[in-house]
Specification:
The chain is α+β, with helices and mostly antiparallel strands. Helices cover about 35% and strands about 10% of the residues. α2 runs antiparallel to α3.
Length: about 475
């Protein structure tokens, strides 16, 4: 009993950071034991055994990170197993506090986490100027640059993804909630803050409750989930459907909702990430009611993107009843949607059509026209920066032919090779040759070749289901 009493006193007086480090080392030993038992390679087995024995000898100690600017941080004293956020944001250069906020030197959890940006989610749009923008201690990051395309934190405030302005303004107009199609939101605002000009409309309450509050405008809460869609993190931090952490940081419970799979940013965003907000159901524009897709439970437990059959992929990408083409099934969302589509261009639009920058004819041309080519002529070309961000893009050089949309946006992932337009998948790196309408057997009226017109003939859902 005396020994137990002493053990309790020792445990209660032991610093929390020591407990976390001990838990981390033990978890690593367990993982290494599992790998040792599973391998038949004697060389690998010996190396793993050496790693395990070394891990068993580790003792808790305060971890101090010295940054190039001379600042000190002790965050990894507790978060010992945390993953590197990205190659372009190395911890030894940026540290943790520049993005997350908080107290870099404290070893007390409450003090260390006090003042964290976005309550631990620095990607939230309300905190993004401090975490990702130009108002942090690291100076200019994703805001404050001369070239507007480099100011993603500013651009996203006006994007369709952030405020749904152009999409909702047309819905409001069609339902008589706005006198004319107009810009309903301001930069940094959301559509739910816009008062109805025609007071007393019964559908206004439906619009607020069933559309705005259900999805983007309800402070990031996803439909029927307790987790949050936190601004930049919604796309750039991959999650599972439960939003639970699966990484090596033992301070984050594996059952706690509201985390990414790991502590990593990515630009390789698969359609499965998009589906966690999109394609969960359809709004009924006649009644302004949201109808959840009936097969969502099946989609959540389906195989990963690389293990899907064509029929599974067809069912998972889009909800039942929607019309789409072959490329919309095979490609990921970001293989078509452009930088300005997703991040915005700094302008607010009264319609979704104005906000979206891509159409089928941008890549495939029409019966009368071929896609618009643009020659890379300067090292200052924005395409060089975009190629650096995504490792799946092939190397770029002066003289390369890129595709440009009718609305004027460059598409550095689509190159002309030997007279053929080639799309390089942003997610997998796979190459796709793009068939052109010009010179084909297309029977469509040349004056009606928008994306909607293409869907009328090239709906592949029936063929794949057969």
């Amino acid at each position: 009993m005396l020994a137990m009493f002493i053990g309790v006193i020792w445990a209660n007086n032991r610093p929390t950071w020591e407990t976390w480090q001990t838990s981390y080392y033990r978890s690593q030993v367990v993982q290494l034991d599992s790998k040792i038992a599973a391998t038949q390679n004697p060389v690998l087995k010996k190396a793993l055994e050496q790693q395990r024995d070394s891990m068993k000898k580790q003792k808790p100690e305060i971890k101090t990170l010295i940054l190039p600017n001379g600042n000190l941080e002790r965050c990894q004293t507790c978060h010992l197993g945390i993953e590197e956020i990205s190659k372009s944001h190395p911890a030894e250069t940026f540290g943790c506090v520049v993005c997350h906020g908080g107290n870099a030197l404290s070893l007390d959890q409450n003090q260390a986490h006090a003042g964290m940006y976005g309550a631990g989610h620095p990607g939230q749009l309300a905190a993004s100027q401090l975490s990702c923008g130009s108002q942090n201690s690291n100076g200019q990051c994703h805001s404050g640059h001369v070239r507007i395309e480099d100011n993603q934190v500013d651009l996203i405030q006006t994007s369709l993804m952030a405020n749904k302005g152009g999409e909702l303004s047309m819905i409001r107009y069609m339902r008589g909630l706005d006198v004319s199609p107009k810009i309903s939101v301001k930069s940094g605002g959301t559509a739910s803050q816009v008062p109805a000009p025609l007071n007393g409309q019964p559908l206004e309450q439906n619009l607020q409750q069933n559309c705005l509050e259900l999805c983007h405008q309800r402070k990031g809460k996803l439909p029927k989930q307790d987790s949050s869609a936190n601004g930049c993190e919604s796309c750039h931090v991959l999650t599972n459907w439960n939003h639970t952490y699966q990484g090596q940081d033992v301070t984050i419970p594996k059952s706690e909702v509201g985390h990414g799979l790991t502590h990593r940013l990515t630009t390789l965003i698969p359609y499965t990430q998009c589906n966690q907000c999109h394609n969960q159901g359809m709004p009924d524009l006649y009644t302004i009611q949201f109808k959840a897709r009936p097969d969502l439970a099946r989609v959540k437990v389906s195989s990963g993107p690389n293990q899907e059959s064509p029929n599974d992929r067809l069912q998972n990408v889009y909800q039942p009843g929607m019309v789409f083409t072959q490329c919309e099934v095979e490609l990921d969302c970001i293989d078509c949607h452009t930088r300005q589509d997703v991040m915005g261009d700094g302008h607010l639009y009264a319609s979704e059509y104005q906000a979206v920058k891509i159409q089928c004819f941008d890549c495939h041309g029409t019966k009368k026209t071929t896609p618009i080519a643009r020659t890379v002529s300067s090292l200052d070309d924005l395409a060089f920066e975009e190629v650096q961000v995504n490792p799946n893009f092939p190397r770029l050089k002066i003289g390369d032919q890129l595709l440009k949309t009718v609305k004027g946006e460059e598409l550095p992932y689509i190159r002309q090779e030997a007279g053929v337009w080639i799309l390089n998948s942003k997610v997998t790196g796979k190459k796709y040759s793009i068939p052109l309408v010009n010179g084909s057997a297309c029977q469509q009226d040349p004056e009606h070749q928008t994306s909607n017109d293409c869907h009328m003939c090239h709906d592949v859902s029936g063929n794949l289901k057969k």
